[in-house]
Write a structure and sequence with these properties.
By secondary structure, this protein is mostly helical. The chain contains six helices and four strands.
């Protein structure tokens, strides 16, 4: 799905947090002349931090955005960064124009060079392996029961009185209606 670049996703997330903070602080530190440059810079900074904090990776706060969506958002955001001085009318001011264009190009390079999928693919393979081994164990257990020649159903969860006199059956205690309703309240 993703190309494997030299930068781990952890570094990508860290760079996005720092870049977001810089985009919020730079209009105040460098005293942009244009109100549009200041507003766009602060909005971009908040978006960068919000996306980094919501992506499904180690530095996230809530894991709501899948890595594939983050990857796509990075491309859109890089395009917006490069086009912002021209779209929002502050291309005559050299400092914010240079910062936005440079940040867009650097964001493209960071996106290209990030290993987004390495951990996710490894986790997915581990989950698939564990679920397939569980299914194999379940098949073995059902095969061994049928191979023993016993046509009786599995009686591990049988209420009192339903065991049919079979002392090998594990009997679960019968719960009264009031016991079940009090268990739901707790």
């Amino acid at each position: 799905m993703f190309k494997e670049g030299p930068f781990p996703a952890f570094l990508h997330g860290l760079v996005e947090y720092v870049a977001g903070a810089l985009f919020i602080a730079l209009p105040l530190l460098l005293d942009y002349d244009s109100g549009a440059a200041t507003g766009v810079s602060i909005v971009i900074g908040v978006i960068l931090i919000g996306v980094a904090a919501s992506t499904d990776w180690g530095l996230s706060l809530n894991n709501q955005i899948p890595k594939a969506a983050h990857f796509a958002l990075d491309w859109v955001l890089a395009g917006v960064l490069i086009a912002a001085p021209f779209l929002f009318g502050f291309s005559g001011e050299s400092t914010p124009t240079a910062i936005f264009i440079a940040a867009g190009v650097l964001h493209i390079l960071l996106t290209i060079g990030t290993r987004f999928g390495a951990k996710a693919d490894g986790e997915r393979e581990a989950r698939a392996k564990s679920s397939s081994s569980k299914a194999a164990r379940d098949r073995e257990a059902s095969t061994s029961r049928s191979a023993s020649g016993s046509d009786e159903p599995d009686r591990r969860f049988v209420r009192e009185g339903d065991a049919g006199g079979d002392p090998a059956a594990v009997q679960a205690p019968a719960a009264s209606t009031s016991d079940r309703s009090s268990a739901r309240r707790n």
